[in-house]
Design a protein that fits this description.
By secondary structure, this protein is of the alpha+beta class. It contains 15 helices and 34 strands.
Length: 744
């Protein structure tokens, strides 16, 4: 292989003779680039072609000679590949770095893509773009004001020729590899010409405008001040109008406050508040950087920026009030108080101690008994104290006047006050909302209901009635509170004095502790209905009772949790008066009457089931079961079954017209058959009554014996008469039936 005239050529050598190296020929005078590239490619292909194997009839050379030939061939092939790579890379770099006289791809300036432009074209485009951009004003927006930089005053312009020249030079500087790298980077991404060095700008004008703006914005931070002048008044010299008995005058030197006017104390106190001012500062260097950057990038969009504001302490109604209440503890009335837990102890590290010899003396929490107030002590505010009803004595406490600021008026002044402004507000007497007179004048003045019913003459049962009444009598039911019979009376135990008396249980009448107290629960229920109080829980007896009207009974049973409950749905407390006297259970509800209607109850019978008489042969089994009875005795008293509804009718107090009809309850009372002992008709032996011991004589009860006592288990009769049935028919709708129950 020889190199001739700048290209590679193959020459054939005679067999057995070495190839001659001819002299170097003189290259042609003119050769085009395209032809040169074509020749190079042809020579490269010839060099990389595999030689064609020639068929020979000669015998194979020894194995050693073959190995040598293979190594030579491999070495020649490797050299050829390396030479081809060098030539290929050289051709690529030479072709890629050739210059066409235009700005490379993706080269930008002032948001213009200068790709494919000549230097002169780029300069013209940049000049035009510069005029469009820099002939417009630049606006800076702050929280409460705007700064406009006038284009004519900024003098903004660029050297278009210099920018175009540098854009053209991009990718043409450095060696062939550096130029190729720059061009490849621009083709893949983009390159933006920095114009900082070509920008003309009146920075003095811009800085002066920004600093002038900062001067206008700047204010010094000042904290608000709160001042109180005057003296705390002697509140004992003022009295509420209703604290003076009728027909009497106020004591000498005492002023009666006017309930309809604002009451200022003579030589009282005055609040003076000077509002604070916030500190404001503009970061001029930061704003200047943003302005210069806008011109350098050619993006003269609105610049939004906030100046720094340091707010003064906030004066609130709560902070002023807290300072006035605790002037020795709160040093700065302009700092809002931290939230506190009112239920937390004053000092959790100290154990609570019993008060010592303080009966009858007012005390403040955590201090010794109070002494007369020093008129020179720092006192600015005193909360009024409402009258409170003592639920044990039913006596209301004396209200106490307060002294302070009208918080609503103070809030209005705070909301309207401007920065640094000063306003004043006088202290005034604060009247309590609840006075002793307002409580006691409305408490227990009206008898809401007064009823009574006879009780069975039985010493044990009467004892149980009396004990239950004693547990309830005088009970105060607060507005919205619920009365629970079981909670108030408690468990009926022998330790409390309760005795065994008849109760309904499992369809039978048996003796249990507390028997008979259902009469008290039923009386309470009947009275609650007449007062139109809200019934929370009630269950009817298993069988009818005769001490309240049909449907107005309520049964209770401690073991099963069966209870009677009603709620005080009035705005005033109700006192329950209930007791046993003269063979009757007496009930009164005392409260404050607010209803403008009266209540009447009416039972509507839906179904009656008559009992049957069952004759039981008095055999050995019966004698064992009823040892105290003889043939002809009634061993199980009967009850007629009743199923019906109880309705409530409300009548206007003034006109007597029916206002409303309500279904109170559905009650279903079971029947119980009468069982009578008879002789066995198949017996041939005469039946003689078994000898019995004489019944012990019951001691005379302590309660006065009624003139017409009821039997222990009376045979039921027709329901007791109720109020006349109204002319309007009762509604026909019904609720699900209440289950029948036993009870005490």
């Amino acid at each position: 292989m020889t190199i001739k005239r700048g290209r590679f050529e193959k020459t054939a050598a005679p067999a057995g003779k070495p190839r001659k190296t001819p002299g170097t020929a003189k290259p042609k005078a003119t050769t085009s680039t395209a032809k040169q590239n074509e020749r190079l490619e042809q020579e490269y292909r010839r060099m990389t072609q595999k030689p064609v194997k020639k068929t020979t009839t000669q015998k194979s050379a020894p194995r050693k000679a073959d190995t040598t030939n293979v190594k030579k061939k491999l070495m020649i092939a490797a050299i050829a590949v390396m030479l081809a790579l060098v030539v290929g890379v050289g051709v690529f770099l030479w072709v890629y770095s050739r210059d066409d006289g235009l700005i490379f791809d993706n080269v930008y300036a002032l948001d213009l893509n200068l790709a494919g432009m000549t230097q002169e074209e780029a300069a013209a485009a940049i000049e035009q773009r510069s005029k469009e951009l820099f002939e417009q004003d630049l606006t800076v927006e702050l929280q409460d004001r705007t700064l406009v930089l006038v284009a004519a005053d900024t003098g903004a312009k660029v050297d278009a020729q210099a920018i175009a020249q540098n854009a053209f030079n991009y990718g043409r500087e450095g060696n062939m590899f550096q130029r190729a790298k720059a061009r490849s980077a621009a083709a893949l991404t983009s390159y933006t010409m920095p114009i900082r060095d070509y920008l003309e700008l009146d920075e003095y004008y811009i800085r002066e405008a920004v600093e002038q703006l900062a001067t206008e914005i700047h204010t010094d931070l000042t904290q608000p001040t709160v001042t109180i002048t005057g003296h705390f008044p002697d509140l004992s010299k003022y009295i509420m109008p209703d604290s003076i008995p009728k027909g009497e005058e106020a004591p000498e030197g005492v002023t009666v406050v006017d309930l309809d006017e604002v009451n200022y104390a003579a030589d009282g106190q005055k609040l003076i508040v000077q509002m604070g001012t916030p500190g404001r500062d503009l970061d001029t260097e930061k704003l200047l950087e943003q302005i210069i950057l806008a011109y350098e990038t050619g993006k003269l969009e609105v610049i939004s920026m906030n100046y720094e504001v340091t707010e003064p302490n906030t004066v609130t109604v709560e902070s002023i009030r807290n300072f006035c209440l605790n002037p020795d503890e709160v040093k700065d009335p302009t700092v809002p108080p931290m939230p506190t837990n009112p239920d937390a102890p004053v000092n959790p590290d100290e154990e609570e101690t019993e008060p010592t010899e303080t009966e009858g003396t007012e005390e403040t929490e955590g201090t010794e008994p109070t002494e007369p107030i020093d008129p020179n002590a720092r006192r600015y505010w005193a909360e009024p104290i409402d009258s409170v009803l003592d639920m044990d004595t039913y006596v209301a406490s004396q209200e106490v006047l307060g002294y302070g600021l009208d918080t609503q008026a103070l809030q209005v002044l705070l909301d309207q006050a401007k920065e640094g402004e000063t306003f004043e507000l006088e202290f005034q007497l604060i009247l309590p909302e609840i006075t002793k007179y307002s409580i006691e004048s409305k408490l227990f003045q009206d008898v809401l209901v007064s009823i009574n019913n006879k009780h069975t003459w039985n010493t044990k049962r009467t004892t149980n009635l009396r004990l239950a009444c004693e547990a309830i009598n005088g009970y105060i039911l607060k507005p919205g509170a619920t009365f629970s019979f079981n909670d108030v009376v408690g468990e009926r135990t022998k330790a409390k004095g309760y005795q065994e008396a008849a109760v309904y249980s499992g369809g039978n009448t048996v003796d249990q502790l507390g028997g008979g107290v259902c009469q008290i629960a039923s009386t309470l229920y009947y009275g609650a209905l007449l007062c139109d109080l809200e019934i929370v829980e009630r269950a009817a007896h298993m069988f009818t009772v005769d001490y309240v009207p049909m449907g107005a009974d309520a049964t209770i049973y401690w073991d099963s949790g069966l209870d009677f409950k009603f709620k005080n749905n009035t705005d005033y407390p109700i006192k329950i008066i209930v007791y046993v006297e003269d063979g009757k259970v007496w009930l009164e509800y005392l409260g404050t009457e607010t209803k403008d209607y009266t209540v009447k109850l009416k039972w509507r019978e839906d179904k009656t089931t008559e009992y049957e008489t069952i004759e039981l042969i008095y055999d050995e089994e019966a004698q064992e079961k009823y040892p105290d009875h003889e043939i002809g005795d009634t061993v199980v008293s009967p009850y007629t079954g009743h199923k019906g509804r109880l309705f409530m009718y409300k009548y206007d107090k003034e006109t007597g017209e029916l206002i409303e009809t309500l279904l109170v309850n559905n009650s279903d009372y079971s029947k119980r058959d009468k069982i009578v002992l008879i002789a066995d008709p198949e017996s041939t032996e005469p039946t003689e009554p078994a000898p019995t011991e004489p019944k012990p004589t019951e001691p005379k009860p302590t309660d006065p014996k009624p003139t017409d006592p009821a039997p222990t288990d009376p045979e039921p009769t027709d329901p007791p008469p109720t109020d006349p049935e109204p002319t309007d028919p009762p509604p026909t709708e019904t609720d699900p039936d209440d289950p029948g129950n036993g009870g005490e």
